[in-house]
């Protein structure tokens, strides 16, 4: 799958370059080369930047495992995850690491989510019978990551506040609904492909519990101001993060674990993983850079806008589509396009709000796929990409519909 996708991206970029040159735009060659080398450099920068975070969390996770706390966390969600990932043996550490990653994503703890996700992918790889082909559990885990619900997207609120939004957090509920649609869409897609039954008492019970908690949290947050929402989010996220760190180290020390030695051993794995990511990230970012530099994305947007106008539909959502199209490829690129839309159309305009909702409700699918699969040497992702992109599509369509509903 990745081989074909990578090749197709190059074909599209090549055809776009030829078209622009034929149209008399000689600058396309310079732009393409610049994006090519800038993204190759970016791949190394990202990987090196991950060294510190990965060594920290891989070391702490090893300490937590020796303390027995990872197994304790796994027991909470094992009944649910064992239905969704039936090939994972009972009591396996993967249940704990998957739970911790998804929790970090829900809380918006980006600095912890990636290393925890790499650890979870490592644990899932340990029971994968074919080490170069993604297992069903790994695919479901990746799709949940690319569509994971973030309860309080503080980053989006921050950017809206910087752009002068009257109420920076007024996109909270639309964003939560859109990202929930993305997650549900991705889960259903994987369940259909992998023939997972979503209708059993355990899954329905957990769903009822999660939905009830979600509704209660929304009801509470709706009583707060934008500033108070940010404060609660920061306190909640940082509090849980520090609680985990201290509990891992203190409990491990109490149980006689050589905490320093175990941390160092885990940190070594984190360092090696960061280095291994460079070629995988470089390959994906190079292809994405050519796609942007060649102007292929602009051609796609213009085609969509022309089609929408031809059928006489409202075209206000088209101004936010650059963010939607860029997000699966590049988080920084989507963020730049979101800010550009806010600047051009107004932060509280329809397009400005929609771009913020899209940016907060979908994930960088190609980046996540390259990082997670690359960390364990997966070469054949099977249906991971198609299911991940379907989840993104559900999130974007939901965001558009919800934005018309709220801001008509």
- Quick one: overall form? globular
The helix-and-strand class reads mainly alpha
Q: What are the secondary-structure elements, in order, as H or E?
A: HHHHHHHHHHHHHHHHH
Domain count: the total is: 1
What fraction, in percent, of the residue positions are helical? over 70%
Low-confidence stretches: none
What's the gyration radius in Å? 22 Å
Q: What composes the largest sheet?
A: none
What's the overall average pLDDT, rounded?
Answer: 82
- How much of the residues is beta strand, in percent? under 5%
Keyword list:
408 residues, mainly alpha, single chain
What does this structure look like?
The chain has helices at residues 2-22, 27-67, 69-84, 94-106, 110-125, 136-146, 154-162, 172-194, 201-221, 226-254, 259-293, 296-310, 321-326, 331-345, 350-361, 365-376, 384-407. With 408 residues, it is mainly α. The two termini are 40 Å apart. The protein has one domain (2-407). Helix 1 (2-22) runs parallel beside helix 11 and helix 6 packs antiparallel against helix 8 (172-194).
């Amino acid at each position: 799958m990745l081989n074909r996708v990578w090749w197709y991206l190059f074909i599209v970029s090549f055809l776009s370059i030829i078209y622009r040159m034929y149209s008399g735009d000689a600058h396309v060659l310079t732009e393409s080369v610049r994006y090519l080398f800038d993204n190759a450099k970016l791949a190394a920068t990202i990987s090196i930047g991950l060294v510190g975070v990965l060594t920290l969390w891989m070391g702490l996770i090893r300490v937590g495992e020796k303390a027995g706390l990872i197994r304790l966390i796994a027991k909470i969600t094992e009944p649910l995850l064992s239905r969704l990932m039936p090939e994972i043996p009972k009591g396996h550490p993967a249940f704990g690491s998957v739970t911790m990653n998804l929790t970090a994503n829900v809380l918006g703890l980006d600095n912890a989510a990636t290393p925890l996700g790499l650890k979870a992918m490592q644990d899932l790889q340990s029971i994968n019978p074919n080490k170069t082909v993604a297992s069903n559990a790994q695919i479901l885990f990746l799709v949940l990551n690319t569509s994971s619900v973030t309860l309080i997207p503080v980053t989006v609120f921050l950017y809206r506040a910087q752009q002068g939004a009257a109420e920076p957090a007024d996109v909270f509920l639309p964003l939560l609904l859109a990202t929930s649609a993305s997650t549900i869409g991705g889960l259903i897609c994987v369940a259909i492909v992998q023939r997972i039954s979503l209708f059993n008492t355990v899954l329905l019970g957990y769903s009822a519990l999660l939905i009830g908690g979600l509704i209660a949290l929304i009801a509470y947050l709706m009583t707060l101001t934008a500033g108070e929402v940010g404060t609660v989010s920061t306190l909640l996220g940082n509090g849980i993060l520090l609680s985990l760190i201290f509990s891992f180290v203190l409990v491990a020390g109490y149980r006689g674990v050589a905490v320093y030695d175990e941390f160092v051993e885990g940190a070594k794995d984190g360092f090696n993983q960061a280095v291994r990511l460079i070629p995988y990230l470089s390959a994906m970012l190079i292809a994405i850079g050519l796609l942007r530099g060649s102007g292929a994305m602009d051609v796609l947007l213009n085609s969509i806008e022309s089609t929408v106008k031809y059928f006489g539909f409202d075209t206000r959502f088209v101004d936010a589509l650059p963010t939607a199209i860029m997000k699966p490829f590049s988080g920084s690129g989507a963020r730049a396009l979101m800010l550009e839309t806010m600047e051009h159309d107004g932060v509280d305009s329809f397009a400005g709000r929609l771009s913020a909702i899209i940016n907060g409700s979908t994930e960088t699918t190609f980046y996540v796929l390259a990082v997670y699969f690359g960390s364990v040497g997966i070469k054949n992702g099977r249906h991971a990409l198609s299911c991940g992109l379907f989840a993104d599509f559900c999130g974007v369509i939901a965001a558009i519909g919800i934005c018309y509903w709220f801001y008509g």
